[in-house]
Write a structure and sequence with these properties.
Elements (H helix, E strand, L loop, with lengths): L1 H18 L17 H4 L8 E8 L2 E5 L2 H9 L1 H4 L8 H6 L7 E8 L2 E5 L7 H7 L2 H15 L4 H29 L1
Helix pairs in contact: 1-8
Keywords: Signal
Amino acid sequence: MRTLLLLAFTTILLSCTANKEAINTNKDGYIAEGYDVTEYFNGNAIKGKTLYTAGHNGAWYKFASEDNRSKFEANPDMYEPQYGGYCAYAVGANGSKVEINPESFLVDNDKLFLFYDNALADTKQKWLNENPEELKRKANENWPKIKEPANAVAKAKREKERELRIAARKAKKAKRKRKK
């Protein structure tokens, strides 16, 4: 039964991961939930304003000021969040795309990492406690595999669904044997 539940959970997780886009944007199309990515490099989490926006690599960015927008436009790759703006911990630890809390961030070696954070899980703290260099290595390895909802993800999903069907048949068969 545990195997069956684990396979079902894995299938659901793969389905969620497969359907997420390469860039994590909110419903209005802004990365980092519309927070000013240049301010993260000053140690601040500040919401941007619709008045100051710029596009880069398929995402829209909001900025708190015209100066911040100009800084971004001069070097957009520097300010672009790692892993498409998804939770860095989830990409590294699980190879999955998870939404973020825009106020949970880390700038390390001039790279912006965003994290999921709520009352139950502080993934930034987990990142820092569990060996950030190893998690970063794993995230860099995982990201190309999960970045796009590609055929490889669809194939993995089909394989997991097949395993789930086989496990369900085996469970039914075992149940019938117990009844005899």
